[in-house]
Amino acid sequence: MPNEVELKLRIRAADVSRLRHHPAVRQALTGKPITRRLTSIYYDTPALALLDTDLSLRVRRMSGGWFQAVKGAGHSLAGLHQRMEWEDIIAHGEPDFSKITDPALTQVFDDPDLRAALRPIFTTDVRRTEWQLAPAEGSQIEMALDLGDLIVDDKREPICEVELELKAGEPVRLFEFALTLLDDIPLWIENVSKAQRGYAHYRPQPAQARRARDVSLYRKMTVVEACRTILWECLAHLQGNHDVVVFGNDAEGVHQMRVALRRMRSAMAIFAEHMPPADDLRAELKWLAATLGEARDLDVFLQATLPPIRQQLAHPGLEKLEKNACRAQQGAHEAVSAALDSQRYQRLLLRLGIWMEQAPAGKHATTLDAFARATLQKRHRRLRKHGKRWHEMSGEERHAARIAAKKLRYAAEFFASLYPTEQTRPYLRRLARMLDTLGELNDMAVTDRLIARLMGSRPGKALGEVPLIVKGWNALSTQRQLKKLKADWNRLSDTRPFWE
Predict the structure, then answer these.
(1) Residue 14, phi then psi, degrees to nearest 5
(2) Are 99 and 88 in contact (CB under 8 A)?
(3) Are 157 and 236 in the same domain?
(4) Which of 188, 312, 413, 416 could form a disulfide bond with 10, CB atoms 3.0-4.6 angstroms apart?
(5) Residue-wise pLDDT tens digits, 275-313
(6) What is the 3-state composition of the chain as percent helix, strand, coil, each rounded to the nearest 5?
(7) CA 376 to CA 379: how far, in whole Å?
(8) Domain containing 241 — which CATH number?
C-alpha cells in the first residue's frame, strides 16, 4: 500500500510552453519526457457509496493497457496531497474486484450489492507529459503536465495542471522545486483533486468556514516534532478557509483565516529557539493578516456593532455611515481575494512548507512535557500581571492584555492533548469566555478608528454627528463589558492551571 505524496499546481494554458522549456526542468531531467493519452473512468454507486467511505475507484486506459486504482482518504496541505493508493494492472476496461485484496478494502468491495450498483460517473481525458527529475541528491520527482477535460455527462471542464510526485527523498524537495518554477511562471497551489472536482457535480459542497482543530501530541515527541504538528494544523486551518473567503459569502471565513494566522505566529514565537530563522516569513504573515484585518473590522462593524445602534436610534447619519461602510467592505473583500490569488501568497505557502520541513528533527535536551509547562507558566504569569487592574486600563493597555490572553489560549490549546481533558476543559472554557469579553471591548475601540476613516473629508451635518452618537453608545457598553470582564477574570483566577 504505497503512500502517494504529490504537489498539485494550476497553470495557465498560455504558460505551458514556458514550463516545458524551464531551465530547472532541463537541468534536473534524467531521461526523455514521455507524452501519452490517459482516459480515466471513475466508478461509484448512484448514492455515491464509495465517496461516503472516503474511497475512489478509477479504471485508466494508458499505453494500450488498463490500470485500476483505489485511493483512500488523505489530506492536502499547501497543495501537498498525501493519500493511500492501491494500483494494479487489469485485463479489461472495467473494475476487477479480484485485484482488491487488502483487508482495509475487501470489507467494502466484497459487498455484492455495492458491486452490482457501481457505474461510471465521470471521466477525465488528458494528454499527460511526464518528466523524471532529480533536482537534488537523493531526490526523485516525477513532474506531470495534464491538459484535457473532466467530462460529466455532456458537460466538459478544462484541466490544466501540474503534478509533482515524490518518488524518492523528502517532501521538502517538492516545495523547493515548485518555488523554483514559481520564480518564473505563475502557478497556483491546488488543493482539490480531479476526483473531488468530478464528485462536486453530483454532490456540491457549499464552502464552509473551518475552525481550528485539536492538535494531537504525545509526551515522547521531541519539541520539534510537536512544533511541526502544530504548524501544519495552523496551515491546514488557514487553507481550509480559502474557498469560503474567495467563493462564499460567509464572513466567518475571513475571521478564521485571521485566527489561523495568529495561531501560526504564536506557534512560531513559542518554538523560535527550535526552528530556523523566520523573520521574512513573519513579515509576509503580517502582510496577509493586515489585509484580512481590514475586511474583518468592517464585517464586525456592519454585522455586530452598527445594527443595535440603528435599532435604538433613528438618525440619518447612521444610514449614510452604513452605506459608506458597505462600499468599504466590498473593497476590502476584493483586496482579500486578490491577495489570496496572488503569486505572493502562493510563494508564502511554499516557503512555509520548506521552512517547516527544514527544522532539525533530532532530539533536544528539553522534553516536550517540560517545554510545555515552562511555556504555559510564562504566558500565565504575563496575563496575571495585566489582570490586576482591568478598570484602570486605557484602551491600548486592554488591547495588550487581550494579546497576552490570546497567546496563553493558543499555547494552552496547542499543548492540551498532553493533559487529561477533565483538567484542561474548565480552564480553557473560562479563558475563552474572558477573551470573548475582551473581544467585545476591542471591537468598540476599533469602531472609533473605523468611523474616522468612513467619515470622509466632507461628511456633512448628519454624518458629522455620528461620532458623538457612537461614542456615547460605546461608553455605556464599555461599562457593562468591564463588569463582565471582572467576573470572567475572577472565575479564571479561581481555576487551577491544568499544567500545574
Answers:
(1) -65, -20
(2) yes
(3) no
(4) 188
(5) 999 999 999 999 999 999 999 999 999 999 999 999 988
(6) 55, 20, 25
(7) 5
(8) 1.40.20.10
